[in-house]
Design brief:
single chain, alpha/beta, 9 helices, 7 strands, 48% helix, 14% strand, binds NADPH dihydro-nicotinamide-adenine-dinucleotide phosphate
């Protein structure tokens, strides 16, 4: 019994694993970062806004120790900035064991009115950046023969909704990119999977929470009868980032209170 316990806790052990979470200065990413830090991992906080990043980094270092948390700001819309950022992480902090492609943006407008600039901005931030960051990080992972990538998807990876066409296209694409990464890299020792949150209470969704009609719709449409909290996502992500998921590849885990299970 004791030996079994030791083995199972070892499978979930994230001690000293270096983890980069894109878009971790707030919202779901920030909570994931705290979960990894609590589990003994070495998290790297990332965002676009350097000032906000410094602020978060300072408070994280106070909580977990200056040596255990690193930070870097770069714009995911800029390919060169991504390659430079990942090279800097390798050089200054060490190689990345776990990548969580979390950063994402929303744009709400009927498809007939969406400009190609807004379309490109959403696709570039939500989909292309996961390919670019994933490619840069996976090069090192493939060389080392191990690594974990978790892409943060959405229920919109599966289901559409009016006025969020670009987001839906980006998240559907990201789900299939997850499979493509798994197809090419699973045999090289990497595990690539996706976690698809339902409606989660963050800055991104505050306007929806404040909209009484929408809020009522979410509560009625979700079997669990509530909005998810960012912490609800952390368990699935930490599991997929651990050795406990060593034979899981190309999958999407919906963490949505049952929303995609029912009509
Ligand atoms: P937030 O808006 O709260 O946070 C977004 C994060 O992404 C911030 O840290 C932001 O940093 C960063 N970011 C955005 N654009 C860029 C960029 N171009 N370059 C660098 N960093 C960038 O988002 P959430 O926590 O709500 O969402 C996180 C992920 O979860 C997203 O992929 C989202 O689609 C997904 N999701 C969210 C759901 C929800 O209900 N909230 C439901 C399903 C999925 P900065 O402030 O510096 O720009």
């Amino acid at each position: 019994m004791g030996a079994e316990k030791t083995m199972i806790s070892k499978m979930f052990d994230l001690t000293d694993r270096r983890v980069l979470i894109t878009g971790s200065t707030r919202g779901i990413g920030r909570v994931l970062l705290g979960a990894f830090a609590d589990a003994g991992a070495l998290p790297i906080v990332h965002g676009r806004d350097a000032e906000r990043l410094e602020c978060e980094l300072e408070s994280l270092r106070e909580q977990y120790g200056a040596q255990r948390v690193a930070g870097i700001a770069f714009d995911l819309a800029d390919e060169q900035a991504i390659d430079d950022g990942i090279a800097r992480i390798d050089r200054e902090f060490g190689s990345i064991d776990i990548l969580v492609n979390n950063a994402g943006i929303q744009h709400r407008e009927p498809l007939l009115e969406v400009s190609s600039d807004d379309w490109d901005r959403v696709l570039r931030t939500n989909l292309t950046s996961a390919f670019l960051v994933g490619r840069a990080v996976a090069r090192g992972m493939v060389e080392r023969g191990r690594g974990k990538i978790v892409n943060i998807l959405s229920i919109q990876s599966e289901l559409a909704r009016v006025t969020i066409g670009p987001y839906t296209a980006s998240k559907g694409g990201l789900r299939n990119l997850t499979k493509a990464m798994a197809a090419e890299w699973a045999g090289r020792g990497l595990q690539v999977n996706g976690v698809a949150p339902g409606y989660i209470r963050t800055e991104l969704t505050q306007a929806l929470i404040d909209d009484e009609r929408f809020n009522t719709w979410v509560l009625e449409r979700t079997p669990a009868g509530r909005w998810g909290e960012p912490a609800d996502i952390a368990g699935a992500v930490c599991w997929l980032a651990s050795d406990a998921a060593a034979f899981v590849n190309g999958q999407t885990i919906f963490v949505d209170g049952g929303m995609t299970a029912v009509v």
